[in-house]
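Dissemination and training. As part of the outreach component of the grant, students in the summer workshop were shown how a complex can be specified as a set of sequence lines and then modelled as a single object. The example used during the hands-on session is reproduced here so that future cohorts can follow it. Participants entered these lines:
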Amino acid sequence: MTGYTMADSASADDVKVVILAGGQGTRFWPMSRTKKPKQFLSISQSGESLIQSTARRVLGLTTKDNFVVMTNIMHKGLINSHLPYARVICEPMIRNTAPSIGLAAIHLTQNDKDPVMLVLPADHAVSNEEGLLTALKEAVNCAAKSEVLVTLGIQPVVPHTGYGYIKKGKPLHGNAFNVGRFFEKPNHERAIKYFESGEFLWNSGMFAWRASTILKSIQKFMPELYDGLIRIKEVIGTAQEASVTSEVFEACESSSIDFGVLEHARNCAVIASAPFGWNDVGSWDAWAEHFDKDENGNLRYGDAVVIDGKNCVVHSQNRLIAVLGLSDLVVIDAGDAMLVCPRGRVQDVRKVVDELQRLKRAELI
Amino acid sequence: MTGYTMADSASADDVKVVILAGGQGTRFWPMSRTKKPKQFLSISQSGESLIQSTARRVLGLTTKDNFVVMTNIMHKGLINSHLPYARVICEPMIRNTAPSIGLAAIHLTQNDKDPVMLVLPADHAVSNEEGLLTALKEAVNCAAKSEVLVTLGIQPVVPHTGYGYIKKGKPLHGNAFNVGRFFEKPNHERAIKYFESGEFLWNSGMFAWRASTILKSIQKFMPELYDGLIRIKEVIGTAQEASVTSEVFEACESSSIDFGVLEHARNCAVIASAPFGWNDVGSWDAWAEHFDKDENGNLRYGDAVVIDGKNCVVHSQNRLIAVLGLSDLVVIDAGDAMLVCPRGRVQDVRKVVDELQRLKRAELI
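and obtained this result:
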């Protein structure tokens, strides 16, 4: 049980912040669109986008030239404008986190480098930023000093059914534990069991590992992807880079790093972090948690009036929205499109996007 | 039991169509506003406004120079643009139908004229226009030949609680009856009794009488209003007309012609008209009756999508509105303001207008 500081094992220059910004965020329709996914939206009055907040929160860990953003070619311009200092590595198509993290690792091991990769989703929210930083430092240090795949776990504060869980194994040092097992999002009953046991952590989707460590694991558990990555490595910086990367991504299977690698690996660790007001902002309901409500529990963002109604979420844009006689309603106005649904149905917003796809309304997706 | 034709008693020139267009139509917020009440809105794809439809439907009864519109000074310009051929008489303030009809009668009896006034609300809808015309002709002829106050009654087709009722008295001739009694809007139980008895008619708010006949009745039952009207009569066409009219209206009581005069008068008749698809378009719910629905009973006007929902009314304007997982919902988009409420609450839209008044949001009222 030893505490580590950055100086123990990872110098600031040895840390690369890898922000995963390939998400489409259909659950935030109509505000998020194919051309402007959730990570580019702001959820605060400050106007800072989610990806800008994600980067700013960890500026204390390394210098700006060590920020890398993995994204779709379509969003390169947006990344440049939101995070002008970050290096952008483009994925030719959407293939979930395993290929994305593999591609990052291959690029970061050029010239025989082997930095610690701190992998962060671009679109999460955190209210206690110091708490986050403390936990990330421990994760980075843990990853720096041994060949271990570190996931940042968070002590659950409610039996949430929207997050994956990690069962703690044997204690390693500090707040680090071996991983007992990864678990998918549970149903409500199971979530309560996890929560009450005290042995489970939320899987935050934030990871730390040396580039060489994750590559070795990819080689072991996703060998086809690994072979593709090696093909890319050989052509980085040449005229073939784009076409080979495209070929590899086209051929590779779409898989999360959790499912493709971590669930099989023996060298997984998890940091049992105290909660730091983390939220994956996975729906309009989760978004609403970040704002003050009026005396009837209504979140009125912009010009909105709620009469005879409670616990509504009304996001107005350039017009007054008046809700009369309805509770637990979500109304989101994005200017050219508007969503009206009950709070209990926000997880199904994809159905609207699917319907618009069917109707060939590409301009609204 | 004799049938009358127009030629029997009222020549076309002897008929003045008096359209009452003083209503504010707050129940159609956010489409209707103080500056553009319901009568100026269109409810059909043709784009014809309610007041334009009202006038066009009765063009067969008289010539265009016999159309008079009673309205608020604020709406004179709108009337001129919607009905360029009509004479506009301005009411200095809103005082319900009795002062409005009295003012019309005083103007129409200038130069010892005594036309039959056919009084029509500006903002009702009719699907069978021939049926309406037949009934109005009978009302006009009935009013032309004797000193009688004729209300156009309509055979109920459902036990509606949103309309006033008239109990038929003794038969007079054709479809004309004495009035047994006027009844206010009933509750549901009472509406069923009225409906099942076969002795009740809907009060359409359409009337016919000679100008002299209604003035005599006003003299009898609203003597203060009558005195005021006579004061106005003496100054019509002079520099004092506007100020005297203002004084009289300011002093007079706000009362409907039904409540102030008809309920007390003995010389009331009612035409028992067959239904002609009449609707007072008294709410968004009633408005919806005029449109075709999709296979789930949803009225989608403009760009609207309803998923997992039935019997919704969605009126979109310049944007897509997506309703997910909600039934019996009303969404009305007026561009700068939007209403979301259950169908069962459309009668309470005034609460929104009141709240906006309280919030000093005059631009939205």
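Residues 1-8 of chain A have pLDDT under 50 and may be disordered. Students were then asked to discuss how this feature might be tested experimentally.
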